[in-house]
Amino acid sequence: MAQKQWPQFPDELTPINADLAVQRVDDRVSYFHGHLPIFSHAETDLNTFRLITSQFCVNGNAKQVEIARTFKVSGISVKRYVKRYREVGPGGFYAARRRRGAAVLTAPVLSEAQALLDEGLAVVEVAEQLKLKANTLAKAVRAGRLHQGKKKA
User: Do 48 and 39 touch, CB atoms closer than 8 A?
Assistant: First the structure.
């Protein structure tokens, strides 16, 4: 998995272009249009940073390359978040990530597997009976979704 690249916020007032500037003061990042402050967020609020810089690009206030250069982030990440802003809007930066659901371990399969584990069968035996991979059940046990019963003597 790629490592997250955090933006670098300058302490002094730094121009993004002829109209926009940015400054960090006491863990707050403020954006200025000319001499007027237009937006502020916490330095650690990455989603809001992505939102506001994408909004600057979409509205024509800044170019993507200016954002990438000023904050020392990759150009492709700026493009990615501009695309998200255009397709989903501001809510796309704060929505929970969509994750794939349990494709194999559905509720009925989990309850059946737990019943077999409670009878004292080993994870490998339960996996064979339910035609699952043993690793899938072992992960569920480690994650706490299943608990291993007493071993047969």
Answer: no
Spatial distance between the Cα atoms of 31 and 24, rounded to a whole number of angstroms: 9
Please tell me whether the overall predicted TM-score, pTM, comes out greater than 0.90 for this model: no
How far is 53 from 69, CA to CA, in rounded Å? 12
Integer Rg of the chain from CA = 25
| Ordered per-residue pLDDT tens for the chain, 153 residues | 566 667 776 668 999 999 999 999 999 999 999 889 999 999 999 999 999 999 999 999 999 999 999 999 999 999 999 999 999 999 999 998 887 766 788 889 999 999 999 999 999 999 999 999 999 999 999 999 998 876 655
